[in-house]
Specification:
Blueprint lengths: L1 H15 L7 H7 L1 H6 L4 H8 L6 H6 L4 H4 L2 H8 L2 H13 L1 H11 L3 H12 L8 E2 H10 L4 H17 L8 E2 L12 H7 L15 H14 L9 E5 L10 E3 H6 L3 E2 L10 E5 L8 E4 L1 H9 L3 H14 L18 H13 L13 H13 L10 H9 L5
Antiparallel strand pairs: 1-2, 3-5, 3-7, 4-6, 6-7
Helix pairs in contact: 1-12, 7-17, 8-10, 8-17, 9-14, 10-14, 10-17, 11-12, 12-13, 13-14, 16-17
The structure holds calcium ion (CA).
Length: 393
Amino acid sequence: MIRLAARLTLLLCLAASPVRAEPFADYLETLRPAARSRGVSDAVFDRAIAGLTPDPQVEALTKRQPEFSRPIGAYLASAVSASRITSGRKELEKAATTLQAIEVRYGVPAEIVVAVWGVESNFGASPGSKDVLRSLITLAYIGYRTDYFAREFVTALGILQKGDVPRADMRGSWAGAMGQTQFMPSSFEKFAVDFDGDGHRDIWRSLPDALASTANYLSQNGWQRGLPWGFEVVLPANFDYAISRHSFADWAKLGIHRADKGALPATGEGIMFFPSGAAGPAFLATQNFAVLKTYNNSDAYALSVAHLADRMKGRPAFVSAWPADEQPLPREERKELQQYLIKLGYAVDDKEGRISFAMRDMIREVQARYHLRPDGNPDWALMKALRGGPDAR
Ligand code: CA
C-alpha cells in the first residue's frame, strides 16, 4: 500500500506541471510505474502505447461544452427531438425483456435507462470512434486536468489488462467517455456489469451489458426505486419564491399542481426548481433528479434525460415556454458566483461552476438580500448585484 501511495504521489507530482516540455514518449514512460502498481504488465503497457501520438483534434474540442453554454430550452429541443422520442419508443419495445430484468434488479425504470442511452450515444449510434487511450493521454499531456486524465489513462490500461475489451475496440469520445454508456474508465471500473453472462463487461457491443451498466451506475449513485424524477408544476399567483423544499403533500396545500394535471405523489419530498429562472418553467424535482446529474453534472443534461424518458412513455411536452432571450451565466461567471458565496460564508460544494440544489438555496438567500426575486437561479442580475458590492443593494 505504501509503495502504491508513493507511486500515486509521484504520478500526481509529475501531473501537476501545466505545460510539458518533455517529449511525449518520455511522458508516457512516467506513467509506467503507476500502471504496474495497478497490475498492468509491461507487455500490455508496451502494446497499448505502441505508435501512440497526441491527437491534435482533442485540444480544440476542450473549448466546447454545449450543456454549459447553451440556453436550456435550446439544449432540450435538440436532445429531446421528435425523432429521438420515436427511436426511443422503438428501442424500449425491442429491448423490453432485458429492460424488465434490469428494472427488477436495479430498480431503475426502463425509460430512464433508455433515455440515458439516447442522450449519451443516440441509442448506440454515436458512441464515439476515438481511440480512448489516445484521447486520455492527449488531455493529460496538454495539461487539461492532467492528474485526472492521467489517472483515467492508467485505469483504462487496467481494463485492457483484464481483457474486457480488445485494445482496438476501446473507443469513445474525445474526452475519453467509452462505448454506449459513455463511461469514463473509472466509472467502468466501478459500475460496468456483465449482464449477458459471457464473462466480459462489454459496454461497446453488448446492449444488455450497456443498459444494465447504466442502471447499476444510477442505482449505486442513489437512485430510489419507485420515486419519479419530478414534474413540471404550475404555481399560484401569490407564490413565495423563497420556499424551495417541502413534502409533495405540503406543496399541494400551497396550491402547486402538476402541469399535466396528474396528482402529486402522496409521499416524498419535492424541490422547487427553476432551471432558467422564474420566467421559465417550474419543476418539483426529487433526489432522483440529482442522481441523474451524477451521470453528467448539468441541469440541462439531467432534464433532457428526464424529459426524454417521459416523452417516450407518452407523457406530454412541457407546458411553459423557455425564456426566448435567456442568457445563461457562463461557466467562468458561475465560478465567480461560487467564490462570492464562499466569501459570504456558505459551504459551497463545487468550485467548477456546477450548481446543485443546495447552492440554489444559498442563491435564494443572497437574491433576497439584494431584493431580487429569490428563484435560486444563477443569473446576470444576481451577478451584477454581487459585483456591485453593498452599494448595489
Ligand atoms: Ca457481457
